[in-house]
Amino acid sequence: MQLLPVESIHAQKLVEKSKVYALLKGFSGEPSYALDKLYDLMVRFGKLVESLENISAFEINPVIVTLTDVWAVDGKVIINLLHRAKRDIIKSTKTSGGIKFKTAKTLSHTVQASTYHYFEFEPEAPLDFIPGQYISVKVADSRINCYSVADCTGNTKFNLFVDTKPGGPGSNFFETLKVGDPIYYIGPFGTFGLKPDDGAKTLLFLATGSGCAPFRCMIEHALREKGYTKPITLYIGLNHSQDVFWIDYLENLKREFTNFNYKIAVWKPDNSWKGHVGFITDLVKQDYPDASQCSAYLCGAKPMIDSATELLKQLGCLEKRIYMEKF
Prior knowledge:
CATH topology of the largest domain: Rossmann fold
Radius of gyration: 21 Å
Structural class: alpha/beta
Largest sheet: 6 strands, antiparallel, barrel
CATH class of the largest domain: Alpha Beta
Shape: globular
Number of helices: 9
Order of helices and strands: HHHEEEEHEEEEEEEHEEHEHEEHEHE
Number of domains: 3
Distance between the termini: 13 Å
Oligomer: single chain
CATH architecture of the largest domain: 3-Layer(aba) Sandwich
Strand content: 25-35%
Number of strands: 18
Strand order of the largest sheet: 7-8-11-10-9-12
């Protein structure tokens, strides 16, 4: 099972766990089937499901896979009639169905890399939150999406970091958001935050993609406001070289705070990438063969969180010191 959105790496891991993978990858020296096209079908299917309203179930069956191609032969869609009630609850802009939305004005919108967008907002009312929390933004008449706060200037401005790669209603909303436009949100919510009294001597932060958003805020808070002197390392996992972001920001933070470091791993880089190739779990295993004195904060795609959790426990990190926020 994989929660939306589905990216190619998620699709690959799902297929590799299936019983039919032994046949699809090629048996006894035979060529493999069209696995890349199968992964692409799964990604596109996920985007289609995200873009549709009133859907409670969507199935493709069967899917035919050959050595050279993939076909979705038939499908079934189940319409959720109760979805209309949810849509009516949040249909109005600021107040509806007992939900009172807060308003913030867009101050800036920059594309940091490929599909990664960084926004600054000015809320009408002060935003009081704990670093690591999220807000729920109304991205369509019938859709509210959750986004971690990436940074906050006092309680008068805040930032969101959004990956629009999934292509659903949230992606479409933020891609077209302009300076001066309002957003309507509720929150903040969540308990994902720093645990200063857990006894750890080293803090590890592991993120994939926009999972870095809460960590930017949490690490800034630890260094600037709480005066942490413990070693802090941020590991960022990305799919492609063009996805790399925040290099200047992270380098400046590293120069300012000698106890902070960061490392980036790219899964499928081009020739321009000179850094680590692979997954952030490789780096953690290399850097911390003994993680018994570490606490680890994980945010991002479920496959990373699952594999990182298992690895950290193998390296001696106490399970009670592994904190996570799944997409």
